[in-house]
Amino acid sequence: SDRRPLARRMSADDGAPYKACRTAASQGRRPPPAPAAAEEPSWHADPRPKLLIVDLDQTLWPFDAALPRFGLPHRAVAGATPSVQCCGALAVPFPEAVAVVREVSAGWRVGVASANARRNVCCSLLSELGLVVAGTRSKGIEQELMEIYSGSKAAHLQRLARTSGIPHSETLFFDDLRSNIATARRLGVAAHQVSPLQGLTRAAFAAGLAAWREQRLAKSAMATWMRTGATLRQCRERCGGRWGLGEGLRRSGFSWRADRPRDRRRGPGSRRGAGHHHRAQR
Fold first, then answer.
1. Region labeled Disordered — which residues (predicted)?
2. Domain count, the chain
């Protein structure tokens, strides 16, 4: 074996042995792990809502459909991005919003809640974009779940709940206005605000779905807590009312503020207690 120093061997043979060792070492090392691909949210994983409701203006498309230039007649324009030729302008929706609605409608029921006054224009745009399929619930927005008229979101959401038979707790709603989001949440609907510049994106949909699942988990925890409260009441009834709640819990094996000292203001040493004590002695 060649016992010459490494530097001498490199200079003697143009560094070939050194290069060979370096190549072998590099081949012996494990390659760095590839970055994990971002997993798309699963639209159909349980638990999931039963009804998706979307706004139209600044949520599904970046314009106000009530403007005259987006009026009838409409004609679908073929291309990579779905669009509709209107009487005075080309209506181009948010691409991700259209994709999300199409994908989700394969397993969810989808409806619309919009305060736009031009219902006929909005329905025509949705139809030309291929988002509404008559008589088919699994391929688009249901015609009977399209609440498009001037009014509050509360009226829209309440009517959609009656028409679909789905409660507010099983509904997910997207809108670009904070006031509409607050209105939906007061009704018990899980709602997520989208950016008016981007509309309903995949990231926004994933965030809304996560919020719905958190809300469902919180309600489940509250139900568990209420059942625990019922258990405490049963414990007190089992004690026959002979002791207070704290004493009954302590005798039943619970430790829940049973040994908490009483309020000193009600004791003999307090002003109220001392006055009452003196009056009793008189």
1. 1-43, 256-282
2. 1
